[in-house]
Structure formats: C-alpha cells, structure tokens
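FORM 7B - TANDEM STRUCTURE REPORT

SECTION 1: FIRST PROTEIN
SEQUENCE AND TOKENS:
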Amino acid sequence: MAKDTKERILSAALDLFSQNGYAGTNIRELTASLGLGKSSMYRHFESKEEIWNALLDQMIAYYGARFGSPERLPPVPDSAEGLIELTMRMVDFTVHDELIVKTRKVLSIEQFRDDRARALATKHFLTGLTDMFTVIFAGMMQKGLLLQEDPAMLAFAYTAPISALVHLCDREPEKTEAALSRVEAFSRHFIKTYGVTNV
C-alpha cells in the first residue's frame, strides 16, 4: 500500500511538473490532486526536492529499460531495413509513450533551473542518442552495411534531425504522423547515401 501511494505521488508530481514546472507546483496542489493530507505526503517524501530527485531516478530507470542507452544497446541491425525498423520503433516509443512525453516536457522546462535536469536533457536529447548510434553504426560498418566513415559523425548527422522532429511532435502534436513519415523518409535517404547496399 505504501509503495502504491509513493508511486501515485510520483505520477501526480510528473503530471504537475510537466504542466507547471517545479517552481509552479506546490505540495498543497500535489496532495489535493491525490486526496492526501500533507502528513501523508511527508510519510513518503520529506520535501518537494526529494520528490523531484525520486522522479528523476524513476525517469532514468524507465527510459533505460524501455528505450535503451549507451550502456544497454539494442542489437546491431543485420540489414539497412533493420536500421529503419529500429529507428521507427524507437521514435514511435518516444513520441507515443505518455511517461516519456511528460518526462521530455519536464526536462525541457527544468533544464534551465536544475543541474541534474540539464545533464539529463543533454543526454536524452543529444549525447545519449549519438553515443548509442555511434556503436550501432560502427557495428553496421563491421557487417559491411555502411560505408567506412567516422561512426560518431554519422551518428550525430543521423540523430540530430530525428531529435528535432521529436521535439516538433511535443510542440505540435497534430503533426506527429507527418513527422514520423519524415523520419522514415530521412532514414531511407541516409541509407541510400551511406549504405553499402540498397534498402
């Protein structure tokens, strides 16, 4: 029961932080949204800052388990089509998973206030993806699927436009399907440019 209450608090905190930011959310609002008293809240978390840090820990674990990370890589594709399928699976998850969308909004808001949020935003919006695809592309080069280029530069060139389209989905959700189509078209263009064999 206590675990359920703790999870409910973190879920409600994510909702409020993604809408109002950390500074724009107070404990009274949070407890009211859950039908809890402040004393109940403080049995689980000593402060709003403790809720914030627990929420960031939860975000990191959730994202890493479902999306992957440089430490937990997806398998290197065996074909150019496999790269496109991997990319579309990752992007689809990123723009449709409700917790990930809220997490991205929180990080976008709080990166200017909180050092940990800033580091996570940099990792999730740029360096983590580049690092992940550097390894993937190096593996694809070893399999003879991509031209022998600098895998880190290829990863940067590949992930930056895709990240931009993901952020477009956050700002203008009505453009999500068009953005996904553009990601797939870009992925196919990338393979046509850097692939050793045609898709």
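SECTION 2: SECOND PROTEIN
SEQUENCE AND TOKENS:
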Amino acid sequence: MAKYDRKAKHPRLWYLNVILLIFASLSFCAMWLFDSWSDLTIDQLINNIRQPIAGTSPSILIKAFLMIALPITALLCVFLVLPSLFKKYGYPILRIKLRGISRHFSFTWKGLLCVLLICSAVFNIFALFKLDIKGYYQYTNVDSSFYEEHYVSPDDVEIVFPEKKRNLIYIYLEAMESTLMMPEVESQTGGCIVPNMKAMAEENINFSHNSGIGGFYEAPGCAYTTAGMTAQGMGIQVRTSLRGEMFPKEDAAFLSGAVSIGDILQKQGYNQAVMFGSDASFGSRRSLFEQHGDYEIFDLFTARETGIVPEDYYVWWGFEDKYLYSYAQQEILKMAEEEAPFNFTMLTVDTHMSDGYKCSLCRDEYSYNYSNVYSCADRQLAEFVNWIKAQDFYEDTTIVIVGDHLNKDPEYKPIADISKYVRPIYNAFINSSNVPTREKSRVMYTMDMFPTTLGALGVTIEGNRLGIGTNLFSDTDTLLEELGQNFVFSELNKYSSFYEENLS
C-alpha cells in the first residue's frame, strides 16, 4: 500500500501553514514593539533594525525573546505536531452539537488555519496603519525643499567666540522631560519626583513652551538617543530609510556633509571628550563623536580598563550612573588641568526604558519603580552639579542639562496617561555667558539646542541660525514660530534630496 503523503495531497494547507507562520511572526514582532515603545514611528523602527545588536541591554533582548521568539517557536511546534495526529487534514478537530438541533458543526484544521490567517492579516494591516505607511511614503518619495531653503551651514556664516573661551559640560539625561514637573503628573506621584531638576530650571535658564517650567518639542526623527544627540549637536535630523546600505559598518561615514558643535569647538582649540555608561558603538554614537570633533571616548570598556568597574562588570546597559558620575569627575579634573578650554559631554543611562534601573542608591518612595529611578537620578545629578560648582574651573564653565528625547515607555502611567497634554523635553542652562531676550512661551524644537548652546558660551552667530535651529538667546524667531509647527513638522516628515546630496 502506497505511503500517505499529506503534503502531496493537501499542498494548499502546507502553503497556508507557511504563510500563517510568516504573518504570525510579524504579528508577534508588532505586539512587542507597540508594547515596548510609545509613539513608535517607522523611521525609528527601520533605524533600530539597521543597528547591530551589540551593546543592547540584556533585559530588552530577554523581553524580545519572550514576546517574539518563544511564541513563534511554540506556534511552529503546534503546526508541525498537531496535523500529524490526524489521518488527514479534513478530519474535524472540533464538533459542536446545539441543543435541539441534530446537525453537527465541524471545525477542521483547514478552517482553523484560515481563521488564524485572517486574524493575523487584520492585525498586521492595523500595525501598518499605526506605523503610518502613508507618512513613510512621503518620507521616502515626496521631495521637500525645506532643508534647501532653511539649512544654514556653519561654514557659510560668521561665528565669533569671546576672547576668553568658556568650558562646556553638556549632560544628556536619558528620557528626561519637563512633563515630570507638570501639576498633572505631580498630582499622580504625590509631589515632584525630581525637585532638584525643577529647582535648577527655576533658578537658572529654562527655555519653556509656556510661562513656567517647560521645554522644547521633540522634532520628527529625533525620538531615540543618537538622533536626539545629532539634532542637538548638528541642528539636523538623522534620516533613516531602506535606501542605501541596510547594515552600515561601524566606521561608515556619519553625516559627512554636516558640521557639528564638536567640529566648531575643535577648530577653536577645545579638548573634547564624551562618556557613556554603555557601549559607545551602540546606535553609531562612536562614529558621531569620532568623526565630528575627534572626541576622546569613554564607555563601558574604558571603565573596565581604568578600574572604575570590575573587568567583567555588566548591568543594565553597561554600568549605572553612580559609577558614571564618579568616572566623569575623574576625567573632567584631568581636562581642567590643561590650558585649552574643554568640552565634556556625557549621557546618563539609569532612566532608560523599560521601567528604569534601580541601583543601590535608589529608595522605595513611590509605587512606580520608574518614579524611584527618576528620583534617584535627580539626587545624583544635583550632587554632580554641586561638585562642579565647587571646582576652581566652574567660573569659566557653562553647564547644559537636557533630555535626549521623551520617555518612550508606554507602561509608565504618570506620563503615558497625560498624552493629551504637551510633553516637552527638559533643559537647564547653568552659568551661561548670555541672558536670553525671550526665555518663556517659545515654540522650539530639538534642533534649536545646537546654536543655543554656542549662544550660552557667549558665541556670536551671524543670523542666529545654524542647521535648521535658532539661537534661543537671540530675539530671532525660531522656524516653528516663523512658519508654524505643523508646517515644519510636516516638511521634516518628507524626503529631502538636498539632505541626501549635501549632508548624509
């Protein structure tokens, strides 16, 4: 008797199996992404796909495995094992007899596959709409002249430094937004969980979207760390698409046509360094700072080499902020001993999603772990700033404290629940050389930090614009104030041939 070949007799069912597995895989990926990031955009998704996995926090990799790989593996096992339990695919796997009705309703394996396939297809269509495929089409195909008309290259305008150049300490705070200081959030958390940062904003310069403590808007394409750093340091976006090399090499050119604050300060004789509590190569950050300003780079690996942490140390994304601040003090003191002015940039990491990292310094003050982490970060920052103020070099040093982007954790309810409110990114300028003409009720975005930081150092900029940012210390309207926020954001969500040809 010939051997029964299910695949030969029912090839369409095998095709359905394969298609369903593909669709299901996409569905699990989408569920994990939407569960992990709020307001996820397709350009951010593509950027994350293009980046190497090295340097990623193990907690994120574990969560991805549990929500993607594990369910797909289980589903694959079901599809491979379950059909073999039946003599043929058409055998009913469920019979239902309704009371008073003699007819049997059979639900076959083929029917189950079709139902699952339809459900998965519907979910994937929903995911595509949520990622704004129409917007992505504009981002890659509808050419905007915005960059061509408004981009100002630092090479094309006069930039004059004061006779005595000031030091710069630029502190990027991971996922720090002024939203935490809003009354709507404070009422949920039982008071301000970042009182020191609030005081820094009140007692120093805080460019605000309102009349009180506030911040600037997150520009399109600036929703992750490297993009936020690029926008604040170059005044432009990191534009990502499926055009070009899918997985660029670590030493690939990073926006070779653009000029950053690092490039400008390097020409002025500054010693420059940047410090991360993680792998500097993650997200092309090493390329950004090495290629634009030749920064000396300190990260997890240099911390191990110098004994800041043990040789095999690894927690969270590398090492926590309590070691980062200690490491920063050590390197800043070395830079301050040199005759040349210095620019020291650093990025904190404890407040990274999801839920932050609770270190040994954190207290159990709030019901949300993230709130405890933010509170701890607030105390550590205050201690670090007070240390800087106590140093001899402080008189000639300007401190810029700013968030890299908004918090993207959809599970942190104190912020997620007020999505209907404006959510601004935190900023505070301490010991600035300049006083702003208009500090409050400004309409501004990430790119404005580029010329504004130079303005804080007492630098005069012809026209008060660099990149597509505006010096907020001047009386010049920002591009958002001049052209309207909706128009500018709409144009930045479109393709730019000028950007591709002249900046990337």
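SECTION 3: OBSERVATIONS ON SECOND PROTEIN
The chain has a mean pLDDT of 84.
Residues 6-131 form one domain.

SECTION 4: SIGNATURE
Preparer initials: ____
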